Amino acid sequence: MPPENQRRYKRYSVDGIRGNVLYTSDIDVLNISSDGAAVETTRRLELNRDYTFKVRYRDTSLDLRGRVVWAILMSREQKDTGAFVPVYRAGIKFTDALSEKANLLQNFIAENKVKVLEPRLGGARFRIANSEDVKVDLPRKYEVKRVSMSGMLIETGYPLDLESQQGIELFLNEEIMHFTGRIAYCETIGEGEASRYDIGIEFIEMSDSDRKSLKDFLDTLEDG
To answer: Which fold has domain 28-130?
Structure first.
């Protein structure tokens, strides 16, 4: 990583600042409509938390924000071993209100539906042919060591591929920032099962409001 005196922005050491790196995982879609879905996963989705669901429709990747409104733990028997494994079912309420996304989602459902389920106030729910075209971004925790307006150094329990771009959440002053980061640096610290990773992230895409929130936070460190 470049020396401190060659950086464009001053970096600040911080403590107690955390966030999540988001990774894309498969899910089973039990039913879906333009206003929500029921899904099954191998990892628990937290109640009242927002997740990003990725729908591949033709040549378009449609990102939908959805909130978990109910969640239950179940079990499923594995066909090869006969063992029962935990699975999680959750109800999702889509929170995006953009008409363009709604139209694309309706087109996806129309082309993939195989069965109409019970009608609902928000429209009928449909079972689709397969769930391969629908995925969810799940969180993996990290802690921030240093941060600036252009990037941050974090510590994780997992490595990330150099030059990959990741969806990232950062928790600042009870706000959740969402941005895309490029993995510029990854170094192992420790050995064996206790290994941790120092990871340098460059901010690539960040909204103006989140950038202002970050600047306001760094200004408080400057004043201190």
So the answer is: Thrombin, subunit H (2.40.10)
Tell whether the model's pLDDT for residue 72 goes beyond 90. Answer: yes
What pLDDT digit, counting tens, does each position of 14-57 carry? Answer: 999 999 999 999 999 999 988 899 999 988 999 999 999 999 88
**Of 99-108, 140-149, 157-166, where does mean pLDDT reach its minimum?**
99-108
Contact (CB, 8 A) for 183 and 163 = yes
pTM for this predicted structure: 0.74
Tokens of 171: 């928790």
Domain boundaries, the chain: 4-21+138-223, 28-130
Q: Which residue has the tokens 């960040």?
A: 206
Q: Residue 12: is it exposed, middle or buried by C-beta count within 10 angstroms (0-12/13-18/19+)? A: middle
For the four alpha carbons of 161, 165, 166 and 171, in that order, the dihedral sign comes to positive
**CATH second-level architecture of 4-21+138-223?**
Beta Barrel (2.40)
With a CB cutoff of 8 Å and minimum separation 6, the contacts of 77 are: 83, 84
